[in-house]
Amino acid sequence: MDDLNYYLDKYDAIPLDTEQYKNSYVGWALDFFIDETKVINPYLDITLRLDLTDAETNYKDNFKNDYSTFTCFLIWKLLKALKDHPSFWWRFINQKWYQINNPPLFCPTAVGGEARFLPIIINNATKLGWLEFSELYKNTKDSIFANPIWSNNRDISYAYQLCQFVGNLPGLDFLSFAMQTGRGNTQSFLYFGKRTYYENQQRLTVPLAIKFHHGNLDPFIIELLVKDYLAELSKL
C-alpha cells in the first residue's frame, strides 16, 4: 500500500467524490459495472476511422520541428483533448474510485528482438508544451531503441496501472482491434493503426481503436472526445 500511495501522490491522484453523482446515471454506472456478480465483462471496444487531412496540414504548417513526428503530434493533441474529459482518468483501486489528475503517458513501442515491445513513459505529459513534449518523446524513443532491454519493475507496473495508454501500430490497417486487459483495470486503451491516403479524394485517414471500462466511460463520452479531438487537431 505504501508503494501505491507514493504513485498516487506522484500522479496527483485524489479520491473521487462519488456522492456528487448519487441518483444519476454516472453514479449507477460507477457501482454497477465494477460488480463482478452483475457484469461478466465490463469493457467495450470500438474502432473508428478518423480523417486526418486537416490535421496533417496543420502539423506541417505550424508544428513540425527538428524533434517531432506526425505520430507525436497526434498523441500530444489527444492528451489535450482528454483533459476536457476527466472520466478517462478515473481509476477503481482497492475498492475506491480515484481521479488521476496528472497521469503518465504510456506508449508501447515495437523494438523487435527479444524485448519485442518496450514502453515510452512520459511523466507530466499532459502539462508539457509542444516543443518540450516532442523533444522528450523523441529522446525517450531513441533511448529505448538504443538499449532494448525488457523490464517490469514497479515504476513501469504502476505507470501502466495509472497511465493514459496510447499505442501505435503503423503497419496494421485494422478494421477492428479488441485489446485484452485485466478485470481490475479501469483505464482506457487507445491504439492508432496504419494511416491511409486516398489519392482520388485527397484524404488521409487512420483507424483508432478504443477499449474502455463501462463503469467510468460510455459511447456517448467517446463520441464527445472524438469531436473534441478532431477540433483540437486543427487548432494552433
Could you name the key traits of this structure?
single chain; 236 residues; three-stranded antiparallel sheet; 7 helices; 10 strands; 35% helix
Question: Brief description of this entry?
Answer:
The protein is an alpha+beta fold and 236 residues long. The chain contains seven helices and ten strands. Strand 3 and strand 4 form a beta hairpin.
Task: Report strand %.
Answer: 25-35%
On the 0 to 100 scale, the average pLDDT is 94
Helix content: 25-40%
The biggest beta sheet is recorded as:
7 strands, mixed
The poorly predicted ranges are none
Radius of gyration: 18 Å
Number of helices, where a helix is a run of at least 4 consecutive DSSP H or I residues: 7
Describe the protein's architecture and organization.
This protein is α+β, with helices and mostly antiparallel strands. It contains seven helices and ten strands. The protein has helices spanning 2-10, 25-32, 53-63, 70-82, 130-146, 154-162, 219-233, and strands at 13-15, 43-51, 90-93, 96-100, 105-112, 116-122, 164-168, 189-192, 196-198, 203-213. Strands 2, 5, 6, 7, 8, 9 and 10 form a seven-stranded mixed sheet that branches. Strands 1-4-3 form a three-stranded antiparallel sheet. The radius of gyration is 18 Å and the shape is globular.
List the helices and strands and how they pair.
Layout lengths: L1 H9 L2 E3 L9 H8 L10 E9 L1 H11 L6 H13 L7 E4 L2 E5 L4 E8 L3 E7 L7 H17 L7 H9 L1 E5 L20 E4 L3 E3 L4 E11 L5 H15 L3
Parallel strand pairs: 5-7, 7-8
Antiparallel strand pairs: 1-4, 2-10, 3-4, 5-6, 8-10, 9-10
Helix pairs in contact: 4-7
